């Protein structure tokens, strides 16, 4: 579904990624882990057309997408939840969700209903300003907005960042359910062990390059990976 080959990318003249390869199959759940500054978010931003492309290829459903801008990429079936500033704080919850469908002529009511069924608290608080909600609820708003177009691939950048420990489990459970319902997931996570335990496949990125790739379970069991990247 998503195939990244030999990707070189960065910001302006600054190259961050070198020869990065990555695959996400239909309905798969793929995680990228690695140290701070490894370029994990840059991979995700590159897929969404937000970095400077320097070489290689990014294809989605067998179509090259790297010259496209984010709006065109959304049309292709990819939605992105950035780590920061992922909601409009002064808009209500419902207005935020409606923004997720801005590329359409009208808001698809069935999608709004599907998002409310997935995140009932958002229906209860639909008229509340999103900026006044808790961290976990704001993350639900951001995910709900990304799901408004029923994407084939959902890009999640550190969905557990800033959440209280008891909410982290809940967030990962919700992501599992989104994936169980057929949406492929590409997720960057600091919470590496938890993410690898849940995903189909993991990529360890270091200094902008692929370091290890395997099933989540095998990466977790690999002594070198554990020593170098997972705190032993
Ligand atoms: N907009 C930008 N302009 C210039 N450099 C950037 C920009 N965004 C990120 N970088 C740099 O790119 C490198 C990789 O950053 P990136 O956010 O992709 O890493 P990461 O692995 O996701 O890190 P973290 O786990 O800390 O979020 C870092 O050196 C960072 O300073």
UniProtKB/TrEMBL annotation:
One family name in Pfam for this protein: ABC_tran
Protein's GO biological process: L-amino acid transport
Coiled coil spans: none
Keyword rRNA processing part of the UniProt annotation: no
Annotated ranges, domain ABC transporter: 2-232
Gene Ontology molecular function: ATP binding; ATP hydrolysis activity; branched-chain amino acid transmembrane transporter activity
PROSITE patterns recorded: ABC_TRANSPORTER_1, ABC_TRANSPORTER_2
Keywords: Amino-acid transport, ATP-binding, Nucleotide-binding, Transport
Domain of life where this protein originates: Archaea
UniProt family annotation: Belongs to the ABC transporter superfamily.
Protein name in the entry: ABC transporter ATP-binding protein
Organism, as annotated: Natronosalvus rutilus
